[in-house]
Amino acid sequence: MAVVQDAIIGWKTITHGCHVLEAGSTRHFRTGDWRSIRPVTDNEKCIKCGMCYIFCPEMCYEQDDDGYFVANLDYCKGCGICANECPKNAITMVPEEED
Amino acid sequence: MAKRVGVEVSIAIAEAVKLAQAEIIAAYPITPQTHIVEHLSEIVADGELDAEFIPVESEHAALSTCCGSVAAGARTYTATSSQGLMLMSEVLYVASGMRLPIVMTVANRALSAPISIWNDHQDIMSQRDCGWIQTFAENGQEAVDLTIHAFKVAEDKKVSLPMIVNIDGFTLSHVIEPIELPDQEDVDRYLPPFRPKYRLDPKRPISMGPVGIPEVYTESRMAHDQAIKNAKRWIIKAWDEFEEIFGRRYNPIEQYMAEDAEILLVTMGSISETAMTAVDKMRDDGKKVGLLRIRLWRPFPSIEFRKAAKGAKALAVVDRTLPPGAASGPVASELRNVFYKVPGAPKTFGFIAGLGGRDVTVERFEEIVDKAEFYSKKRPKELYEVIGVREK
Ligand code: SF4
Ligand code: SF4
C-alpha cells in the first residue's frame, strides 16, 4: 500500500479541493485486500466461455495466453459471483486462510 | 458614465450577472428569487448574453449542474431561496469542498413549517457552515455591486471558493430602487476572464470529489477552513479595486455613528437601513447609540469586529432566526466567541426579531437599545430575547 502511504499528506500539501491530479490512479488502490474467500478455477472443467469475466463486478478477470480466465487477486473482493455464474462449476471459492 | 435608473432589485441583479458575462446559469424558480433568473432567461433568449441557461428540475439539480459547469471552466451563476436552498444543501458542501467558484444569490426567506414566503434569515443560517464565502447586501445598489464583487473574489485563483450574496427576500428582491448599473467596460476592467486553477479537460484528466479516507479527511477540512480564512485578504482587496473603478466603498463591517457609541446595534442585511434611521433618532434624543452592520458573514471578520466595537459598553445583536433549543442566535453566539476574555470587551445581548416577514421598525430598535442599556446594569435571565412576540 505504498501509494496510499504516500497520499498521507498534511493540510498544507493536500491537493486543491482534494482533487486527484493523476489519471487512472485508482489502479494503485488494491481494493481486494479485505477479501475472505477467493476464486480458484479448475481449467480441466473450464470451457473458456467468459461468463466469469462478464459477471465479475470488479472487472478483474483477464485472459491468459492459453485463453483461460484468471482473476486478478489485487482487486477481487471475493464476492463469489463468478463461481455462481460459471456454467461448468469450474470455479471454487476457497477461504483465504487455507492456502 | 454609468446611469442611475429606477429598477427592481431582482432585475438589477440579473443585469449585474449579465455585466459579469456569466456563461452558464442553471436555476430553478422559487419565490422570492424567481424574478432574477426569469430575467436572466430572457436576457439569454434575446441574445443579449452569450450564455447557456439551463432550466433544471430542482434546486438540487441546479447546483449540481453549476458544479459541473464551473468544474469545466465556465463562469457560473445561480440563485435560490428558502426551501430551494434546503434542497441544495447537500450540493452546497460538495461545491465548497471541491473549491468550485460558483456565484449564487440567496433571496433570504423563512423556512416551513408553517409555510412562509416572507423574509428572515433562517434559510441561510441553516447553511451557515456550508463553507461558502457569504456577504449581505443592505440595498439594491449593494446587491448589484456585491454580485460583481463575488465573481471577482470567488474566481480568484488565490481564493477559488463559491460565494453567496444574501439579499433580503421581498424587502430587497421586489422593490424598485434607484440603482447605478456599472458600464460594461468598467466591469470588464474589474473582472478578468475566468481562468480556474484546475478544470475538467479530457486532454489532461483529473478527478474531482474523490473519497477522503480517514487519513486525509481532517487535512482536507483544515485546508478548506484556512482557505476561507485567507480569502478575507482578497475579499477586501477586491473591494479596494472596486472603489478605484466604481467609486463605492465596501468593508467587512460597516460602521454608523459608532466611534463614541456606548451601545452598538449589530445588524445584517436590509434592516440595517431602518437601524440607521433609528440611530439618528436616538442620537437626536441624546443617546450614545451606534450601529455595526455585518457585510461579510463568512469568513467572519473577528479582528475587524474587535476594532469596530472598541470602547462600547454593550452590543445589542439582532438575529433574524430563532434556532430552537440553541443557547442563542447565531450572530450573538459568534460575537460572544469573538469577545470572549477580550479585556474591556462590550457585553453582548442577543435579540431575535423580524421573523417570517415581520417588520423591524424604528420603535423596535429603540426598544432593543433600551433593553440592552437596562441589561448592562442588570444581567438578563436569558441569553436572548424574542422582540415583539405576543405573550399570551
Ligand atoms: S469473486 Fe467476485 S470479485 Fe472475485 S473474481 Fe469472482 S466475481 Fe470477481
Ligand atoms: S465462467 Fe467458468 S467456464 Fe466460463 S470461462 Fe469462466 S471459469 Fe471458464
Offer a quick outline of the entry:
The complex is a heterodimer of chains A (99) and B (392). Chain A has 99 residues and is α+β, with helices and mostly antiparallel strands.
Mind sketching the topology for me?
The complex is a heterodimer of chains A (99) and B (392).
Chain A: H1 2-7, E1 37-41, H2 51-55, E2 61-63, E3 69-71, H3 81-85, E4 91-95
Antiparallel strand pairs in A: 1-4, 2-3
Chain B: E1 3-8, H1 9-19, E2 24-27, H2 34-45, E3 52-55, H3 59-71, E4 76-80, H4 82-97, E5 103-108, H5 122-126, E6 133-136, H6 140-155, E7 163-168, E8 176-181, H7 184-190, H8 214-246, E9 253-256, E10 263-268, H9 271-284, E11 289-294, E12 296-298, H10 302-308, E13 314-319, H11 330-339, E14 347-352, H12 362-377, E15 384-386
Parallel strand pairs in B: 2-3, 2-4, 4-5, 5-7, 6-7, 10-11, 10-13, 13-14, 14-15
Antiparallel strand pairs in B: 1-8, 6-12, 9-11
The structure holds iron/sulfur cluster (2 copies).
Q: Would you mind describing this structure in some detail?
A:
Chain A has 99 residues and is α+β, with helices and mostly antiparallel strands. Chain A has a single domain, classed as Alpha-Beta Plaits (2-Layer Sandwich). Chain A contains three helices and four strands. Chain A has a two-stranded antiparallel sheet with strand order 1-4. In chain A, a hairpin with a 5-residue loop joins strand 2 (61-63) and strand 3. The longest helix of chain A has 6 residues, at 2-7. The two termini of chain A are 22 Å apart. The mean pLDDT of chain A is 90. With 392 residues, chain B is α/β, with parallel strands linked by helices. Chain B folds into two domains: 3-246, 3-Layer(aba) Sandwich (Rossmann fold), CATH 3.40.50; 253-386, Rossmann fold, CATH 3.40.50. Chain B has twelve helices and 15 strands. Chain B has helices spanning 9-19, 34-45, 59-71, 82-97, 122-126, 140-155, 184-190, 214-246, 271-284, 302-308, 330-339, 362-377, and strands at 3-8, 24-27, 52-55, 76-80, 103-108, 133-136, 163-168, 176-181, 253-256, 263-268, 289-294, 296-298, 314-319, 347-352, 384-386. Chain B has a seven-stranded mixed β-sheet, sandwiched between helices. A six-stranded mixed β-sheet of chain B has the order 9-11-10-13-14-15, sandwiched between helices. In chain B, strand 4, helix 4 (82-97) and strand 5 form a beta-alpha-beta unit. In chain B, helix 9 (271-284) packs across helix 12 (362-377). The radius of gyration of chain B is 21 Å and the shape is globular. The chains are: A alpha+beta (99), B alpha/beta (392). The complex binds iron/sulfur cluster (SF4) (2 copies). One iron/sulfur cluster (SF4) is lined by residues 39, 56, 58, 60, 71, 76-82 of chain A.
